[in-house]
Amino acid sequence: MILLENLSKSYRVDGRDIPALKRIDLSIAAGEIFGVIGHSGAGKSTLIRLINLLERPSGGRVLLDGVNLTELSSDALRKSRQKIGMIFQHFNLLMSKTVAQNVAFPLQVAGELDKTAINQRVAELLELVGLADHANKYPAQLSGGQKQRVGIARALANNPKLLLCDEATSALDPQTTASVLQLLLEINQKLKLTIVLITHEMNVIRSICDRVAVIDGGEIVELGPVTNVFLHPKHPTTRRFVYESEHVDETTEADDFAHVPGKIVRLTFKGESTYQSHLSALARQYAVDFSILAGRIERIKTTPCGQLTLGLVGSQVDELLSRLADEGIVVEELRQ
Ligand code: ADP
Ligand code: MG
């Protein structure tokens, strides 16, 4: 649905071109929730603003459903932007307008519906985001989570195919974040809406995204399904994000087990195998003793996943490991 080809963006600062994004190649499929994570200044906002051409690229192309946005006339671009909704960290609501008037605004600008139809559409949208009872309040009378719900209703007003979210939950507390993310997931499923979401929080990625790109210094340093990136992070930046969010001390994974006898392995479970008893059954069968050195079991979006670091002692450890591998469990030997 979205295709970014060799996309770059530099900003001219004090007469010099400073690159903010370098050679980005990315494709995002219709219906997916695609996350982009990176530290402050990594280029996330620039990337999302290039997708709807709020910024013009210095090089490369942006294709939306096969149409090259960089070549459109400003009129055609305005039309195709109506198919892209956007929400922001600080909501960007009109403070002197009510909730209903904020949501009606993009419909009035589009000029396709009469007053009755607009009122009806606004009521529908407020119902969808759970604000039916707050139509006549002003933004100042709402909580942060409610303000973002207004932002979402407004972004959806013109039936976009794509929703861009720039740090949409970064100003919210964890519980409110979770409820706004659930709303985004519901909308994604109900309306078959494609969502691109940028964040600096790994938890946001883990709870609703299908795939993730990690961006660092204006480049995509890692890209893949969220489960893969979480369970097998490769780039140092990704590893830092994952280990911070999981409260894992990376050094304990490798160095701290000098006193533990036997072989040290890390097992990764994904999907159904996470909740099955392969390990204990096979350990019994092969008379292997194991100690659990580190571990985590969690859900990544809807997939159960687990990772255990074990010390293994016994004469048939290798047989045990090859049987686990047969069951689809990823076995990594950390120490022979
Ligand atoms: P993020 O959203 O990941 O925090 P941004 O995309 O906002 O990062 O910024 C990426 C880089 O581009 C930063 O170094 C930032 O200072 C620079 N930058 C962003 N917008 C502008 C601008 N309008 N003029 C000059 N530099 C900019
Ligand atoms: Mg930003």
Please give a structural write-up.
The chain is an alpha/beta fold and 336 residues long. The chain folds into 2 domains: 2-244, 3-Layer(aba) Sandwich (Rossmann fold); 257-335, Alpha-Beta Plaits (2-Layer Sandwich). It is 36% helix and 31% strand. It has helices at 44-51, 74-81, 99-110, 115-128, 144-156, 174-191, 202-208, 226-231, 236-246, 250-254, 278-285, 317-326, and strands at 2-13, 16-28, 33-37, 59-64, 67-68, 84-88, 162-166, 194-199, 211-216, 219-225, 263-270, 289-300, 303-313, 330-335. Strands 6-7-8-3-9-10 form a 6-stranded mixed β-sheet, sandwiched between helices. The chain has a 4-stranded antiparallel β-sheet with strand order 2-1-4-5, with helices on one face. β9 (211-216) and β10 (219-225) form a beta hairpin. It is elongated, with a radius of gyration of 24 Å. The model has no long low-confidence stretch (mean pLDDT 94). Bound molecules: adenosine-5'-diphosphate and magnesium ion. It comes from Chitinibacter fontanus. Part of the ABC transporter FtsEX involved in cellular division. Important for assembly or stability of the septal ring. Belongs to the ABC transporter superfamily. InterPro entries: AAA+_ATPase (IPR003593), ABC_transporter-like_ATP-bd (IPR003439), ABC_transporter-like_CS (IPR017871), ACT-like_dom_sf (IPR045865), MetN_ABC (IPR041701), MetN_ABC_transporter-like (IPR050086), NIL_domain (IPR018449), P-loop_NTPase (IPR027417).
